[in-house]
């Protein structure tokens, strides 16, 4: 592990030690613990005390309510000092934790929930553990870890108009080899990262995590600091890789085209969106896990304008949290989407939409869960584009179609009357 890595600097501060090498044993005290509500019973069994020694959150986003843990388990943890976010009032755990200011640059968050990895975008080190270790951590306030290796990605250039975090993640998975060890921390930095909007960084992190690379740490920049400004009173620690660091992979964002992933004969395939050009699409799911923030939906509406969803396509949007859903309603964006044919569903519905019984190769979405249930995975703008045509359509092609329609419906006489 490079002594100039962001992880190295973060762990040195957290463990209060002078030097660190890969495979060293460290004892750390995390800032927060986030528990998966479905593993509360196992976590509770591993505890011996009656108080959580670390700030503890329980964020539920599971549906239907039948699989929500016994209220007695929730009550026990609340008496121990945990904060509970019930299903139906929250959303995706990572988004809720970020909105409520529980992720800061340089902080450490330990979780039993696989849905927190994308908080690495904010410079937070997220470590997933099992319920037994989590229970011991809640008793003692500390956790013993082994210093992992790091793998560095340098982003250069400016992504194209239609390129988002999902496209970048699929591009990386298709053309480069990432570490097989899930404990390796992937560090992402470079001037190209600053050219990627924050919501697209979350999408990038989410897809990489869902493909097994859960330990991700991003370089922090002013956009991250602006996001955190009104969300937390805490003070972050900012770490940056040394200028002479050796990068394992260099990614030129300008070379990336819209990407798509699908299943073929039981194997995962990834390629350019044009590889599936004109393939029919019957169901489209945008949001739920990835592409579930306000700016994801805002960008989609800007692209499709008021064009209606193609008949007979079924299209739904799943805001990642109640706050996002509220913003969509308050800004009038939700009403426009409903008018043009989209359904608005809670993010917790994604579990129901990706069950084996719902498998459909003509289904397209922004979630790896859609891909694993037999559908196709693509970026949000590619999904919005397909919703307008009923087939895989490059966003540039949709833009051309809309311009042609506007030209066709344009009345030259109106211009003459205006000039007069």
Q: At the first level of CATH, what is the class of the largest domain?
A: Alpha Beta
SSE-based structural type: alpha/beta
**End-to-end separation:** 73 Å
Spatial order of the strands in the main sheet?
A: 13-12-18-17-14-15-16
Outline, from the CA principal axes? globular
Summary of the model, kept short:
This protein has 2 domains: 6-254, Aconitase, domain 3; 265-407, Aconitase, domain 3 (2-Layer Sandwich), CATH 3.30.499.10. 35% of the residues lie in helices and 19% in strands. The protein has helices at 6-15, 40-45, 71-79, 93-99, 131-140, 165-175, 191-194, 198-210, 222-229, 294-304, 322-330, 333-339, 350-353, 368-372, 380-389, 395-408, 412-419; strands at 25-28, 32-35, 55-59, 83-85, 108-111, 125-128, 143-146, 150-156, 185-189, 216-218, 249-252, 259-264, 267-272, 283-287, 314-318, 342-344, 363-365, 376-378.
Would you write up a description of this structure?
- The protein has helices spanning 6-15, 40-45, 71-79, 93-99, 131-140, 165-175, 191-194, 198-210, 222-229, 294-304, 322-330, 333-339, 350-353, 368-372, 380-389, 395-408, 412-419; strands spanning 25-28, 32-35, 55-59, 83-85, 108-111, 125-128, 143-146, 150-156, 185-189, 216-218, 249-252, 259-264, 267-272, 283-287, 314-318, 342-344, 363-365, 376-378.
- By secondary structure, the chain is an alpha/beta fold.
- The strands form 4 sheets. Strands 13-12-18-17-14-15-16 form a 7-stranded mixed β-sheet.
- β2 (32-35), α2 and β3 (55-59) form a beta-alpha-beta unit.
- α6 (165-175) packs across α8.
- The radius of gyration is 22 Å and the shape is globular.
């Amino acid at each position: 592990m490079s002594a100039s890595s962001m992880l190295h600097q973060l762990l040195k501060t957290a463990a209060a030690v002078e030097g660190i090498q890969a495979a060293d044993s460290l004892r750390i005290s995390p800032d927060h613990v986030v528990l998966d509500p479905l593993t509360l019973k196992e976590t509770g069994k591993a505890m011996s005390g009656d108080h959580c020694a670390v700030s503890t959150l329980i964020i539920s986003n599971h549906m239907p309510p039948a699989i929500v843990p016994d209220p007695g388990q929730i009550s026990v943890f609340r008496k121990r000092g945990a904060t509970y976010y019930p299903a139906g009032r929250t959303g995706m755990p990572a988004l809720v934790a970020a909105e409520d200011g529980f992720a800061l640059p340089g902080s450490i968050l330990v979780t039993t929930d696989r849905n927190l990895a994308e908080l690495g975008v904010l410079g937070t080190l997220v470590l997933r553990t099992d319920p037994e270790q989590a229970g011991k951590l809640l008793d003692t306030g500390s956790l013993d870890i082994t210093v992992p290796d790091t793998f560095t990605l340098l982003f250069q250039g400016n992504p194209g108009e239609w390129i988002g975090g999902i496209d970048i993640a699929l591009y990386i998975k298709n053309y480069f080899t990432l570490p097989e060890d899930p404990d390796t921390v992937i560090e992402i930095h470079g001037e190209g990262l600053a050219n990627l909007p924050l919501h697209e960084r979350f999408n990038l992190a989410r897809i990489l995590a869902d493909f097994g690379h859960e330990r991700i740490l991003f370089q922090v920049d002013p956009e991250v600091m602006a996001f955190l400004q009104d969300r937390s009173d805490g003070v972050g620690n900012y770490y940056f890789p040394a200028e002479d660091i050796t990068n394992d992979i260099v990614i030129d964002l300008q070379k990336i085209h819209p990407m798509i992933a699908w299943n073929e004969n039981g194997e995962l395939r990834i390629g350019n969106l044009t590889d599936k050009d004109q393939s029919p699409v019957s169901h489209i799911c945008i949001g739920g896990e990835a592409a579930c923030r306000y700016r994801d939906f805002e960008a989609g509406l800007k692209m499709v304008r008021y064009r209606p969803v193609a008949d007979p396509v079924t299209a739904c949007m799943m805001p990642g949290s109640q706050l996002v859903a509220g913003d969509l309603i308050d800004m009038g964006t939700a009403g426009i989407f409903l008018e043009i044919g989209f359904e608005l569903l809670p993010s917790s519905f994604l579990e129901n939409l990706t069950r084996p019984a719902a498998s459909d190769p003509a289904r397209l979405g922004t979630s790896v869960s859609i891909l694993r249930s037999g559908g196709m995975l693509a970026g949000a703008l590619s999904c919005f584009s397909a919703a307008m045509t009923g087939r895989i359509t490059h966003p540039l092609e949709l833009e051309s179609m809309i311009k042609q329609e506007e030209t066709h419906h344009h009345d030259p006489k109106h211009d003459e009357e205006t000039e007069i």
